[in-house]
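Sharing a chain and its predicted structure for anyone who wants a worked example. Both blocks are below, sequence first, tokens second.
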Amino acid sequence: LARETLENYPHTGSDPSVLMGVDCLWSMHLAIAVTSALLGETDNFHESFALSRERCGNDPELNAFNDAMGSIVANVFGRFDQALALAHRGIDGAETKGTAYCRCMTRQALSLSLFNHGEFHRAAEFAGEALSIMEEQNTGRAHLGGVAGVLSLAELALGDAGAARSRSSETIVFCHERTQYWELSAWVASARSCIAQGDQEAALAAMVEMEQLVERTGAVVQRPNLHINRALFARGFSSEWDADVEWALAREAYVALGAHSHIARLERFDDRSIFV
């Protein structure tokens, strides 16, 4: 849809790309970039992201948005150091001149980056700040699933499976039919918190829901998580899945995405170091 809109966009007049102060071409290029990333289309992502970056100019808020989204995508593809640097730069830009929505987005990016660096307390802190901004300013709620997904997994990493399960369950209800990609993040946390609590039936139900949602949305970047969930499930319960086989399939899925840092983390896996 974004590509079709961009192709049909008028390119005549004084500056038709700016509507009510918003650079529409920037937002369309960024939408194409992020969607391409979720579909695993890395070349399309880089091309569209570069075009969106060009449209930012010296606008601190647009640059902060780009940094936040670039950080989230860098995390998806296992570029953790780059993701953290972009997230910090985005936070700085948002604090300089950013709306509440922008400050929420940059905190989402930083919480995910901190989680992937194993800083679970700080990840929970920034995810909590993002949720507070959503609640107090009534903004950014389309990203609630992503933020709450990070917070849920941080809580799980810190040993509170009950809080993680409760939060992910509430998030799934909110996200359903609203923001399906971020709903996936909540299903990841839900399945793993159920596994941690030994609730085989609920864990399996969450995994089935997640698998169906991945197929429906085409979000191939979540395929590794399907196999990781199955491996964790097979470790905890009697299962038709083989943990070693599923672990190998998760590795293959990350190889296909070029997500080498995720591959390295699989090889030194512990129960807390799981990609969101």
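Comments welcome. The CA atoms of residues 148 and 171 lie 7 Å apart.
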